[in-house]
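Obj.: predict assembly geometry.
Materials: sequence records (below).
Method: joint structure prediction, all chains together.
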Amino acid sequence: MTHPSNWKIFCGTRVPVDKLVYLPAPPPWRPYRAEVEEGSERSWPLNAEDDERLPSITVRRGLAFHATSHIIDMVNAALYLRRPLLVTGAPGSGKTSLVDAIAYELRMGAPLRWSVTSRSTLREALYQYDAIGRLQQEQSQGSANIGNFITLGALGTALLPTARPRALLIDEIDKSDIDLPNDLLNVFEEGEFEIPELRRLGDGDPVEIFTSDPSQHRVCVKGGRIAAHQFPLMILTSNGEREFPAAFLRRCLRLQMPNPTGQAPEDDNDNWKRLDAIVALHFDAEDRKEAKHIIEEFKQRAASKTALATDQLLNAIYFVMSSKIESGIKRDQVVQELTRELMNANT
Amino acid sequence: MDISRLAIGLSKAGLEPSLEELRDIFWLAQQITLASGNDPARLVSTEASAAIVGHAAEVAIETAHGSLEETAERRIPVESPQAEAKALYGQAPDQIGRKAAAGLLRVRGVRPLPEPIAISRALRSLSRKRHGNAMVMDEQTTAERIAATGVRDIVYRPAMERWFDIVILTEQVPSMVAWRPVLQEFERLLQLQRGFRTVRTLELKVQHRTVAARRPDGAILTAPELADRTGRRLLLIASDCTSAPWRDGRMGDWIKSLSSSVPVSIAQFLPRVLWPNTAIGFAELHARSLTLAAPTARLQIRRPGWAVGEPGIPVPVFAMTPKMVSDWARMTISAGNAWSVAALIPFSDDEEPARTSAHGLSSRARVDRFQASATTEALELAAYFSVVKPLTPPVMRVIQSAMAPNGDAVALAQVFLGGLLYPVTNKEGSGNPDDVVYEFHAGLREILTPALTSRQFVDIHLALYRFLQELSGTPFDFFALFADPEGSEQLPLEAQPFAIFSRELASRFGMVPISARERQLHRVAALAISSPLQGRLMFSFNSAHVILELLPGRMDVIQQMLDRASRKPDIDLTKKLATMFAPAELVHELRKCEIDEFGLCELVLEPELAIYPWEIAFSDDGSRIGMFAVALGFTRRIQLDVPMVTIAKQDGIVMALEDPVAVTGPARHDLRDKAEAIERILQPIAGNVAKTIGMDSLSAAKWMETNSFRFAHVVMRDEMPPLELRDLFEQEQAHVAKLFFSASSIPEFIFFERPIGASHVIALLKAGVRVIIEPVSNVSAEETLAFSTTLYKRLSEGRTLIEAVRDARRSQAALGSNPPLRAFACYGDADWSLAGKSEVAKISPSLPPGPSELKQDDIDAPPEVKPVTAWPFPTHMRPEKELYRVKVFISNADYKELGDIIRDALSMSKIQLRFVKDVIGGKKFGHVSPVNLRSIRHSELVVCVVGDDAGFVAHERVGAFPRTLAESVYEEAQKQHIPVEILVRVPSPADFDEQMALHRRLLDKKYVTPYETGDDLIWHLRMMVGHLLSTGKM
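Observations (raw structure tokens):
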């Protein structure tokens, strides 16, 4: 097996490449659980045209995400070790965009998303079974194929066998019910689950069910068991509102997102080089020149430990650039509103 | 490869990887090595807190030994696994639950509720589930049943739900203004917990004879309505337990009415130390629940002797700390033998406790009473509030966050509870508690206000100003708050009420600007502080931006501050910088009211003004605004109230200091000539003048320890040093400034012939020097002589300082120099003159032997330097005791070298030094162990000096996380209440990155004093011990 001189698969270059083929086989304790059946492989972007066809939000974030070497290292470690990556960080530091950046660069296809709320359950993320719908159809039409009433959720879809791992975002996991992280543990470890409704049918003919992946609407499942070939790349984000059980944390790699508006050493932001780079990814030189004083003022406020998020700056610049509002008190006021401090806003 | 040894090494380094983690680490390291072949340690360097450098090396050696024979391909980089483990997992998983939580959260600003996550964890035991009353359709069973029987029937099952409902009861009392953020945070925390079925907040309404709970819509809930027979409701009274119903028994009655049907507990906002001031007293009772959430009346109670048979109802109570919350939660679910603290709440049929009514109290008595019980923070806060009127809760919060940014709700609440304030009106009768205006009781403001300095007065109003501007949305002039010649309409409506009172007070704080300067001061006040960018200082100046460029060269001190500010954003530092420089426009303004032809404005320490231009010089080439302010352009009056040492009474000295590098050549003769010339002109005013020639600053400092003078004139070489020696000169200059601190008493008047830097000037002024003359940049010998001749002549004629300086500048100008840059700056009281002090000079008894002998001696020979065994501090600091024990922790592989320096600095008969060493890498020294750390209780002072290495405690894990020596020592000393000084060397750029990171972590700590060189260290140590001796702390 040939290796590139650099061990890193994900490089944060924002240019789609097929580097995933260099990903070595998983560690022996996280083996492939299933093989990809012939004809059941999903499709992923193969060329520049396909890249453009990804959801626009993925393309946009993929082209504008700025990765530091720390982020790159942790993402690669997660890819190599097939472990979920738990991302924490300040609001606006790019936790949610990370998955798009990786999926775009590594041509993993559109990332799957699961936005966790306090009512989210593991089952809903694995699959949904519309028993009532099936009953209705059976009552009215006499027969109903069970496969038409089962839809895999984001996590369930991510575990479908595929040679190229899917990317899955589990957003704001700290908002979840207190038990959810524990429920997830088993899936993280085993990479497989069963659908009892299908299991009941026995090992006979495969059943075609729905998935959450737009590039592969339906998939055949045999015996109600779904097991991963490649573990999906799972990015979990947390706003740090709650802590997690130790067992859960142990199974995740952890990444504290560097804060583009922070100046701590771990933010890797000496002289605002990262903030500048991010602004440069969103606006061309001319715009940046015009918005120079907004940027400088923003930096000063951020430096004085005001809680600010990068989006605020981007919004302010975008507003000034697009609205063509005359500079002056009025504009300054709007800019000030746009960059209002996040915390203690009404003290 | 001996894995067990690696595991031991890792655990020594504070990492305890599980088997799975070790497995992952090894596998990944191998993959990386295979893939890249060259630099496997890339992943390591990314982790900022590479706190384990020393050990990495140690472990590497050990393990490398074991694996030498292995094939190259199997060689796993030993350094990476541990750092990697850190990078991957943050910390050892076992510690995740405890230590790492704080690291996860990165919240700016003060949290109203400290340790919210820990409290939330403490509450976790309450989040149990059970089948609820609600029924949900069981889709699956329904479908199955229909499929099986064909009967269309729906099957229901009870939904799972959380066990407990929580009802928070709050009181409508004035101090709720302070507690509201805490309460909201607590509520939010309970909601977020998702461990409760519902979380509701009700208000307790105090009626004539009773208390009742009120829903948000105003409906009264009776006790039976609140009760819950299913045992699922927890009532929490969130209060500070200070209002009348708590004391007169109405609250007790109300709780009693509920106590048989529902568990009631008190969530006390105040920390436990303040409980004795409230109705719950010392809360010495304990309660235990024998069944799940037993109603209050059925709790098992343990009473202290005094409370046996005492009427009243025992109610569990907890403060908002994880420990107490956890105790309470465990008690509630009757876990094991869990006892919770409880308090006895009296009934109303109790004998009415004799309460003195606060109504008839004199204002003095009120303040006394407040001072007796309040914490320092609360006292300060009350003083801050005393200069603001009208006082509403938002204004109070603004002022608190500006003046005491780390202050918590407790301080604010104490102001309310202290009986100082009373509510005046409720604007438009709205129910919003934020609209209530509070006023101090009559006469209280007058008592509280004098505690404030003018600086604080200005700071409070700057905060208020910012708030008002945001509130009104219209920019207005800061000074309009104090004086408004153009009428009130300039002020937005919101600001007008404040201005009325502020103007009343302004004159008391010297805030009324004198006519000529009025306009300039207007502008200065609009100066907004902003951060330095690439060696520039930027000002927002009446909304326009003025960029002030620093001239290269001269401003090294400032440059250093800038560098520091840009490395580590620090609002204080930035503020300091901003106040140090006056914007160019201001300089123009000042030019209009030109005082003399030099373009120097000598507005020196004018007592009437709190904000004033101090001394400003500027170039005048007209084409560009390349101006700069010298030293403190604009500042507030510095606090000169605590001079460190006494001022010497008589005599003068001319010190001709030798440059550290140029010891040969003609320099000496120059110096001697200069010194003699100065001696001649100084004689008329100083009487006896001693001379020292050719000393370097350190030996001069030692000599000064035993000699003192009223006048000091420091002669130095005038040519600029070659560029490559600049650094050395800068250091030397810093030492020259510090030189006077080692004197047994401080001179009244110091003339420096070479710039020493503004920060040193301030330090000297604070130490008690009355006048300092210092050039803006290097001035030629000729001009210096001209200037000083005239200056001393005029002073001896009895002129005031400012007159003498003006004349001296004229004579300097006659030589045709470039005035702005070659000017002498003058610091001190403008009206200072020799005359006022002449009597003092006359009573000079006899000369101290040292300098007078020197005068006759061969001046080329350096004076005899006394050995440092003498007491190195002024005589009045002589210690009372026979022996002082100072424990010195040194972290350095070069332990001996540092040890010598410290011994040299502190060696004196009265101080016994005990050295404790730290070890790095298993060297043969002793080591810092918990035993050693604890042994500091026998000392009067603990000093920890951290040298080149960052002081990493080798084998010790203090607590769960590897700590540096300095941190361990500091914590231990704090615990034992022993004064502690931590000195950490500032790393040079040549140091390793890892070391820099660790150093930075240390230097970021507030309690750390940085030092750069050995001399620096000596100076710090002496100052420190001297300070402790003089303040009697030792």
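Conclusions so far: DSSP finds 39 helices and 32 strands in chain B.
To do: check interface contacts against the pulldown list.
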